[in-house]
Amino acid sequence: MDPSLPDPASSLSVDSVADSLKSQSLREQGNDRINKENKNKKVKLSLEDLNWDHSFVRELPGDPQSDSIPRQVFHACYTKVLPSAEVENPELVAWSDSVAGLLDLDSHEFERPDFPLKFSGASPLAGAVPYAQCYGGHQFGTWAGQLGDGRAITLGEILNSKSERWELQLKGAGKTPYSRFADGLAVLRSSIREFLCSEAMYFLGIPTTRALCLVTTGKLVTRDMFYDGNPKEEPGAIVCRVAQSFLRFGSFQIHASKGEEDLGIVCSLADYAIRHHFPHIENISKSETLSFSTGDNGQSVVDLTSNKCAAWIVEIAERTASLVARWQGVGFTHGVLNTDNMSILGLTIDYGPFGFLDAFDPSYTPNTTDLPGRRYCFANQPDICSWNITQFASTLMAAHLISDKEASYAVERYGTKFMDEYQAIITQKLGLQKYNKQLVNKLLNNLAVDKVDYTNFFRSLSNIKADPGIPEGELLVPLKAVLLDIGKERKEAWASWVQSYIQELVASGISDEERKASMDLVNPKYVLRNYLCQSAIDAAEIGDFGEVRRLLKVMERPYDEQPGMEKYARLPPAWAYRPGVCMLSCSS
């Protein structure tokens, strides 16, 4: 990407004002009655004592019908529908104490005999008002019309002791009006992947939806994993996903697609989102003077204080840019970046055929459906998300919420923010003080030519010493474990790069010990490689959930050495390259 850059001072103003407003909003929340009552104690609630709220169904238009028959839904943001997955002796596979803490839920609640029944949907949770959300989306660049929660059913929103709003959703809980020709169910295989990656991404420091728990249904589900006409029965499962909101770009697109009649719903949904999830934008006043010149000649002016929706789309663009930069930093490929899989909160959402880079390959896609054009491959993610932002901005323009200039500025800010964040991340990963484009480009080229393991390379890089006197024959010793099977010519190319890198290290003036410590905080030793998921899946499918739980514990400390856990940092074994492990379809 090579976006045109606005005035750097303007960029700083947007970020600094937004940050100050967020801080102000958080301070105000700190004075909330609930916070005062619980200031000196850690709240631990039972399931029955959770503080439910239902702002989405209370404030937005709903479907007058409440059946789960697949159909087109008109003039509504949701349909009330109950979980309906068949359940027989459900079991708790895994859970997240960290997410329980977000909800003020006592971790002992996981031990309740009826816990699997409640989180499989078989036994209702007191206070829940279940519904499925209506949304549409562009899939692989083509408008697909109505999509919606075809197998995810939201239970409602929990307000915790900090006045934070958390939405709970059961994925795989049964049919909804948005299920189309599917059964509304999920299998253990895909549910383990979503549960583990939701938590792994959080502990890597990447914005993401979370996962409270994973239960089996005790029933079998038929799936054709490879879409090759050979379906088989697999164990069914349900994962409880948690996020402050599951609103997507497609949540707005579906209503704009239906013409003037439903544009008012786009406006209502935007007001709702800003009120509950971007409250600091409500506080922006003209006193902040957030006006910026756009375009090459600077003749066009965008005033973010005169239109809260303009400020909102800019923040969504920046959050998205920051998210994608972090994906690129850890080598994460989402696999299905349709507009219905794009969170307005800048979260990683909908874990399907995702994959972390093993051997560095910019054209890598973990999605077999994406193979013909590799639209969603690793290298394309920044540009695809820019395209998605453009589609979202077009929706707001259609609803007359922003102008074309404001839409263009949001896309421009996306490009600027992505480049700033990515360059900062890659600079940190290298342990340098400033970005060196030539050094980075040569490195990425070397990694691709020799198919070097992305995660292990950067983790090993911190072992290089800032010593220009190292003999040429010893330059690659710290990288011996990651530069495998390379010939003389390639060794010379790498030695040349390491020499240039050492010069940069020397110029930075930072001690080897200090640099190694800082690099190890941004270069994980452990990422959720697909083969690790598959090992846990294989064990779980025969009733052994121990590996799922062990893997979760390892992924909760990705930047620590964790002595004794080194096997989870190994390169993929030969069997990991079989279909269904290194690459997957959307079947789940």
UniProtKB/TrEMBL annotation:
Q: Which cofactor does it need?
A: Mg(2+)
Q: Where is the composition biased (Basic and acidic residues)?
A: 29-40
Q: Which domain of life is it from?
A: Eukaryota
Q: Which GO terms describe its molecular function?
A: AMPylase activity; ATP binding; metal ion binding
Question: Residues annotated as region Disordered?
Answer: 1-40
InterPro entries reported for this sequence: SelO (IPR003846)
Q: Extract one GO cellular component term from the record.
A: chloroplast thylakoid
Compositional bias, Low complexity, is annotated for 1-21
UniProt keyword Cell membrane, yes or no: no
**Coiled-coil ranges from the UniProt annotation:** none
Keywords assigned: ATP-binding, Magnesium, Metal-binding, Nucleotide-binding, Nucleotidyltransferase, Transferase
Q: Which family does it belong to?
A: Belongs to the SELO family.
HAMAP family found in the cross-reference section: SelO (MF_00692)
User: Which named protein is this?
Assistant: Selenoprotein O
**Source organism of this protein record:** Gossypium tomentosum (Hawaiian cotton)
Biological classification of the source: Eukaryota, Viridiplantae, Streptophyta, Embryophyta, Tracheophyta
